[in-house]
């Protein structure tokens, strides 16, 4: 079994629950527990009582939110990641734990088949591995306050999975849970996770099907028989205008319900 966490990022919308509803309609259209994936929306408390009430209402209706003891904030994503894995390991005995941003399109059957190929490996870290520049300028979005730890100016980070979607095996999630107080948090969540694993006996799996572009990229690949695990826009670190576009992306790049039922996991 694998546990998927759709990492909620809250912004004020006229209908705060509309995007999660779209995800349910398009990505979780049948019971994925049948083939071993348990999807949940990982959400923390917010500083906006209107959003909190909307979450409470939606959770009462669908009962698929994983409420974390954490307060939302962009610079708190590394802490949220630690809390999610610790909470998930305590709650579910799974072979894999998957983190997905909620503005990313995911084909669950293809994801299940991808994870199944690595079931025999005890410690795997699966995602689109990248190595971006360490940014010391305070004015930029991905500024790294601890840039000096990474060597001279112009250096790049070690290889790590991009934060839009990645999977780790049970042993790694358990390690994070046990050692949570000792794991250092860098400014960027994906860098933090990579730093926790860089010195361990962990196999890094670079799977480019986990970072396809939105149509036409994922559409062409699907037509060629190479359905993507996940699709998003690099320029937006997710699907640009995701509330409006995710249904369109699913129509063009979705694997179809047959893939869900036939996934061998």
From TrEMBL:
Superkingdom as given in the UniProt entry: Eukaryota
GO cellular component: Golgi membrane
Enzyme class: transferase
Gene Ontology MF annotations: beta-1,3-galactosyltransferase activity
Membrane topology: Single-pass type II membrane protein
This enzyme's EC code(s): 2.4.1.-
Main localization, broad class: Golgi
Pathway where it operates: Protein modification; protein glycosylation
Pfam families the record matches: Galactosyl_T
Keyword vocabulary terms for this entry: Glycosyltransferase, Golgi apparatus, Manganese, Membrane, Signal-anchor, Transferase, Transmembrane, Transmembrane helix
InterPro entries the UniProt entry points to: Glyco_trans_31
Localization (cell): Golgi apparatus membrane
Cofactors named for this entry: Mn(2+)
Sequence similarity: Belongs to the glycosyltransferase 31 family.
Listed name of the protein: Hexosyltransferase
Phylogenetic placement of the source organism: Eukaryota, Viridiplantae, Streptophyta, Embryophyta, Tracheophyta
